[in-house]
Specification:
- The longest helix is centred in the N-terminal third of the chain and has 41 residues.
- With about 280 residues, the chain is mostly helical.
- The chain contains nine helices and no strands.
- Helix 1 runs antiparallel to helix 2, helix 7 packs antiparallel against helix 8 and helix 8 runs antiparallel to helix 9.
- It is globular, with a radius of gyration of 25 Å.
Amino acid sequence: RGACALEAPAGVALARRSRDTARSAVWLRSVEAMSAAREENVFMARLSEKAQRFEDMVEYTKRLVQMGAELSPDERCLLSSSYKNCVGARRQAWRAVRILEERQGNKGPAILELIQTYKAKVEQEITDRCTELLGLLDSELLTMASTPEDKVFYLSMKGDYCRYLAEFATGENHSKRSSEGNAAYTQASEIAVSQLPATSPTRLVLALNFSVFYYEVFGSPEKACAIAKSAFDDAMGVMGGMDEDEYRDTAAIMQLLRDNLTLWTTSMAPERSGGMVDDTAVEDM
């Protein structure tokens, strides 16, 4: 007789199907629980933002990243807003303390030591949050980014937070952060110019912040103006036909580019021999 395929007894097959069904049910509950947890973190991040409790917002958005799934555009914006506000407040504080150090530092070593100790505390807080986000970008967000828009957004963000660290870093650390920031911005620019439209808010924000990087970190207003003007001119040439919402978003960023161009060209004018203007007047996003 010919060979026959062997089949599992009916009872074994039934048990196997039961196990598969049970596994499917467990998997489904796991997915539903993860979805519920994600929705809760998004809700709490928005609630924290409304309450202007940005430390809490950072923790909720960090949990979103650590869930291991690619962020939606809305979740991505929540992450950006949380760290921007959290770090931004400390950058503003650092600038205020630095000005006080310049004005009060001649009142004796005791006063100067108090100011410098406090400035170091603020710098450490900035460092902690920036390095935390840079770690998330390198280990999670950039590895999961699947679209040019996502890649440009996260690389631009990496450049931003290297820039924030470079603002007060010295020596080798300043060189390291400057180099890392420049590399991230450059890679983002290559993708943006080749794969995103000139009017894309993500591409324009990148150009805005990259130009600020050259002005503040590298001290090169000429290069800063070149980056900003190129982005402005490229977008201006194709703005016709945009719908109202797109036009409004693009126009708002282009106004910041124009404002910085005006500021920087004024600072380079021959009659202005006093050097660069105060960097707090420069606008970024």
